[in-house]
Structures are given as C-alpha cells and as structure tokens.
Write a structure and sequence with these properties.
Blueprint lengths: L1 E5 L1 E2 L3 H17 L3 E5 L11 H10 L3 E3 L11 H6 L18 E5 L5 E8 L10 H11 L6 E7 L3 H11 L5 E5 L9 E2 L5 E3 L4 E4 L8 H10 L12 E11 L4 E11 L8
Parallel strand pairs: 1-3, 2-11, 3-4, 6-7, 7-8, 8-10
Antiparallel strand pairs: 1-12, 5-6, 9-10, 11-12, 12-13
Helix pairs in contact: 1-2
Length: about 270
C-alpha cells in the first residue's frame, strides 16, 4: 500500500489549492491513504472545525497537528468528537482530543496513526519516546501497520525517535520546520523515514509568512503580527510504499507539486 504524507498546511488559500490538485495527485500516485499536518491552516496558527472538514473534503483521510493545535478554542470540542484530527500524544491527558487513531486505508488495511511533539527547543511536554511506547502497547493487535508524525524543531530529536522505533513502525516523518529535507530513506529495520516533509502553502514568503514581516522582527526584535504570504502555493510531502503484510517500507519518495513545479520524487 502507498501512504502519502503532506507537510504543514499553511493558510486558508491552500484549501482551494488542495481542492483543485489533491484528488488528481492522489490518483496519479496511487495513494491508498493521505495524512496531512493541518495545524497552521487558519492563516499561520491554529485549525478550525470548518478548515479541518474542508481538508477532509479535499481528500485527506487523517489530520495530524502540533504545538499550535490548541490556539483556537473552537477546535476543542471538535478534537473530542471527531475521528479525523489528532493532537500530539504527549500533551497531558486532560487536554482535548487523542494522539492516536486507527484509520482504514482504501484497500482495507488498518493503519495506526500516531502524533507526537518534540521537546527540544519547544514546550516541555511528556517524554515523546515513552508516549509512543505506551500508545503502541495500548493498540497492540488492533492494527496492521503504524505511522508516526514527529512534530519537532530539532532534527537530532526526530532522527533519534526514528532510530529508536525503527522496525516497529512502517513510516516516521517529521513536521514543524516547514522546509523539506533531502534525507528520505528506509532504515535498517524497515521503517521509511524523512526528517521533515516540508510545507504545503505559499512559498514566496518565509515559512509561509510574509517575508517583510519576518525580516522586520528579525532585524528589530520588535513585536510584529504575522500574516500569511501571497503568491504561488506548493505542496511538499513524501510517498511511502509499504508492504502491508510485513509492515516494512519498501521505498520513500519526496513529493512536490504546484502550478510551476513538476512532481519531484527523489
């Protein structure tokens, strides 16, 4: 089976872009399951119930998130009631939502999708290694294969988590930095891996934000309200080809698509 994972979706204009492009791209790639990180879809920070539903309508099967998932209060009840949006496992249990969900792929396989937040250079949450261990134990015997979104700043932390869980998950991919890395590979134990999927959003700014606003804040250290950049929207992600019987990944290919770029699969 093939799993398409899309990097952090930025800005509401990206919804119409994905509505136009994702159904066709999913068919071209032969993706049986589409996972996307949607925590920045509401113009830089947060995700709303309306935006989450729109992403599902675009062809995303399950949404992961990260440190901005709770930025909007209107998402709290949605997190508790929906089966299509998860938050990082390592937030306290009192927080809305869940950090793991079993989703059935187009060809009938049960895929456990896990989401965890890094702690290096980010908020000090529960230990991500322990959180994933507990989730795998809790869902043991209920799924055919598992994948993990590591929403983290430090590349070393993402790689450490991947190395530790190599062989126990079919795919591990990083999100959060909004820059696609060129280190896609299949690890020794059979886990497909990429340090960061990159961003799905406007590429003319800085990480999806208007360049002049980021530059102003960087130069002056004065407060600045960020707004989503305009211009061309490009999707970044990765395609994992997995043997659903063995749970081992056979290949990982970077995916990039948009108006002025052809599909890139490294």
């Amino acid at each position: 089976m093939k799993i398409l994972a899309l990097g952090d979706i930025v800005g509401e204009a990206t919804l119409s872009f994905l509505s136009r492009t994702l159904p066709t791209k999913r068919k071209q790639l032969g993706a049986d399951l589409v996972i996307a990180n949607g925590e920045n879809v509401c113009d830089v920070k947060g995700i709303s119930p309306t935006a989450a539903d729109a992403l599902i309508d675009c062809g995303v099967d399950l949404l992961t998130s990260g440190n901005h998932v709770f930025d909007r209060r209107d998402i709290y009840d949605y997190l508790d009631s929906t089966k299509t949006l998860i938050r990082p496992l390592n937030y306290p249990a009192e927080c809305p939502g869940e950090g793991a969900r079993i989703v059935t792929s187009a060809d009938g396989w049960k895929v456990l999708v896990l989401n965890v937040s890094g702690c290096a250079f980010m908020e000090a949450l529960n230990n991500p290694f322990t959180s994933v261990e507990r989730a795998l134990d809790s869902y043991r015997g209920k799924y055919d294969l598992a994948v993990l979104d590591v929403h983290a700043e430090a590349t070393s932390e993402k790689i450490a988590i991947a190395r530790y869980f190599d062989g126990r998950l079919a795919a591990i991919f990083g999100t959060h930095t909004h820059v696609q890395t060129a280190d896609e590979r299949v690890l020794a134990g059979g886990t497909g891996y990429i340090t960061d999927l990159g961003m799905t959003g406007p590429v003319d700014g800085i990480l999806g934000v208007r360049a002049e606003e980021v530059i102003f804040k960087s130069r002056t250290h004065l407060p600045r309200r960020f707004t989503v950049a305009g211009g061309e929207i490009v999707a970044h992600g990765a395609l994992f080809d997995v043997d659903a019987v063995t749970g081992r990944c056979k290949s990982v290919e970077r995916v990039v698509f948009g108006a002025s770029v052809s599909e890139t699969r490294g």
